[in-house]
Amino acid sequence: MTQPTLIRGEHLLTALSLAADGVPVLPLRAGKVPFGNCRTCADNACGGRPNMKTPGPCNCPAPCHGWAAATTNPDVITSPAWASAWRQAATVAYHPGGAGLTVVDLDNPDAIDWARANLPATRSVRTTRGEHWLYQGAMPSANKVRPGVDIKSAMAYARWLGPGTGPVATLPDAVRALAVKAPAPVRPTAVTVPAPAGGGTCPHRTPTYLNRGIAMAEQRITEASNAVHNTVFATFLAVISTHGRCGCLTEAHTARLFAAAQAKGESPRHCADAWANALTRLGL
Predict the structure, then answer these.
(1) What gap in Å lies between CA 59 and CA 7, rounded to an integer?
(2) CA-based Rg of the chain, rounded to a whole angstrom?
(3) Strands 101-106, 149-152: pairing kind
(4) Beta-carbon contacts of residue 277 (< 8 Å; ≥ 6 apart)
(5) Closest CA to 23 of 183, 172, 134, 182
(6) Which helix or strand (DSSP H or E) is residue 25 part of?
(7) Residue 204: how many CB atoms within 10 A of its CB?
(8) 95: which residues sit within 8 A by CB, 6+ positions away?
């Protein structure tokens, strides 16, 4: 038996051992790229992209690409459909989120120094260029959360590089916060509203009345627990119908409303569209 065959046999044994411990596994070929793990998709024949987060466009009876292929079922791991993959495998990968884990992938010494200064100590595993820090708990995965730092958990895979050293700490808020994107800078669309017919005096031009109205609108958007798109549009419509025809609104007011909407997950484009649609609805 040749040395490569021995190594590949060890990969299969490692995979079975991890699966027995509840860790979903899959084989990786050279370059850390997963296989298409069924006969239809062998050697990527289906045209799918097995290195992507979602399965490729194939007609498999079950997901076979990337993290979606990871399994703890020994019958699948040792099946004929996976046999070719294990013969070619360069290493074993696993789905951290499926095992209830999060991997903080520290890609260089600077990233490791940052982690030591800012994150709770936990189990660490040496990698080619840095370390994997493992925490108990799953979360959304995210790449490039800061220089040299990726997060691999749900819908991602990581190489199995050994059990590592040290106890596994509970996933801290400091790691969860890394995957939260800051709201995009507010770029409100410039809005020009017509003065009342005949140029009459604006009945609402008092700072207290207008500021209270904007604050109530911000609160309505912030407190929306569902149907955020509809709430944002309805709020914009109410504000413009009250203050839009007389010229009360300024870009500063629009920016406050857009910022509240973006904090709930709306994009600048969605905000601009909602504002424009509200103007159209009111004939402005």
Answers:
(1) 32
(2) 27
(3) antiparallel
(4) 233
(5) 134
(6) strand 25-29
(7) 14
(8) 23, 24, 25, 26, 67, 70, 156, 157
Which tokens sit at 53?
């987060």
**Residue 131 burial (CB < 10 Å; 0-12/13-18/19+)?**
buried
Number of neighbouring beta carbons within 10 Å of residue 182: 6
Residues 145-193: tens digit of each pLDDT: 999 999 999 888 999 999 999 999 999 999 998 887 654 454 554 444 4
Asked if 94 and 100 count as a contact pair (C-beta separation under 8 A), the reply is: no
E strand or H helix that includes residue 142: strand 142-146
Placement of tokens 């108990």 in the chain? 136
CB contact at 8 A, 178 and 149: yes
Q: Is the pTM above the cut of 0.70?
A: no
125 DSSP β-pair partners: 132
Rounded Cα–Cα distance for residues 69 and 63 (Å): 6
Please provide the DSSP assignment of 161-226 as one string.
----BSPPEEPPHHHHHHTSPPPPPP-PPP---PPPGGGPPPTT--HHHHHHHHHHHHHHHHT--S
Collect all residues with Cβ–Cβ distance below 8 Å to 43 and sequence separation of at least 6.
36
